[in-house]
Write a structure and sequence with these properties.
α3 (27-60) runs antiparallel to α4 (64-100). The protein starts with a helix and ends in a 9-residue tail after the last strand. The protein is built from ten helices and ten strands. 12% of the residues are buried. With 328 residues, it is of the alpha+beta class. The strands form four sheets. A three-stranded mixed β-sheet has the order 4-8-9. A three-stranded antiparallel β-sheet has the order 5-7-6. It binds one RNA strand of 90 nucleotides through residues 38, 41-42, 44-46, 48-49, 51-52, 54-60, 67, 70-75, 77-78, 240.
Length: 328
Amino acid sequence: MLDIKFIRENKDIVQDAARKKCLPFDVEQLLAVDKIRLELLTTVEQLRSEQNKLSDKVSAATDPGVRATFIEQVRVLKETLKSKEDELKEKMHEWQKLMLSVPNVPDMSVPEGESDADNVEVKKWGDIKHFEFEPKDHVELMTTLKMVDFERGTKVHGFRGYFLMGKGVQLSFAIWNYALSFWTNKGFIPVIPPIIARKNIFMGTGYLPAGEDDLYKTQDGEYLAGTAEVPVMGLHADEVLDIKDFPVKYLGFSPCYRREAGSHSKDVKGLIRVHEFYKWEQVVLCEANHTTSVALHEEINRNTEEFIESLGIPYHTVVNCGGDLGQG
RNA sequence: GGAGGAGUGGCAGAGUGGUCGAUUGCACUUGUCUUGAAAACAAGAGUCCGUUUACGCGGACCGUGAGUUCGAAUCUCACCUCCUCCGCCA
């Protein structure tokens, strides 16, 4: 969540971020509520100050009559205080709700656009292999080699279900293990987090309240995370970290659960878009400073590129346009 | 799932209705002493919010949230977390 002070001082930047992300957010509305909230806060604190002073007089008074007078005075004061406190509480709720809808500010380099089609390609690596025959896709290849079973996966799980089997399992473990040593060599601390996490942890990473439809929820009110990013970010929630320890680099491994609500027509075939899978995730904690965070973002991006290069797989790097996701 | 106990500053640990934002010890910072260090002695030091050019002032914070009261770390209720015992389970 962005700091209200930052929002006050950079309202144009915040409003532009909302526009770029195609989010219906009005910074002026937030600032108006913020102003009233602060006025109420000042009033309430003044009243409390008076109340505290009167209470001190009560305890200092030895004469019962004088004492009773003071008590009566506080009683009157408290009625005003109570109504102002209620007003403040209401404004606070309104304010908090608006604060949660403040978009994170995308980097300057993020292109304008409404869908993946507007993404900008910034890099291309490797040569795409050309075959003299019609190549099979991963679905057909893996099915034939009995690395995956989609039909039975659907029988057991339903839509988007799959069984990874045989060499498919061995290949997965091999890649995970290779990734583990690849990133630990770069100073990342491997973590296997709890993937069932509380609501506040999802709020902290911006997956809630907006992303409720994409999450599985337990009967006890926790949610299943779609990425280890959520619990790994929660690892240090409510803690003050020493700047000397920065940057802290974690590599989280977890199952990932995604409802993929509203994406029934997208990437329907194969293993591209599934409800349940396992992966490693890079999470870096660093100073809240533009230069530093951009440098580290470049670094982890480069880590991924290097990893793919080491496997000899051609790829392209795109800058994802703002319209694709709500919270970045 | 059932029964009981506990949660206070960086740590340990007092405090059961009124100068308690909180005794004390350790750790920390500064000073005295010392060639230097240690020890001893003395002093200082919490976080957040609002306000102020600034000094400062005001508010909140004793797991969290409500309540009782003129006044709550202290009383009541709910929740969270940890510990102990019993039960259940892969």
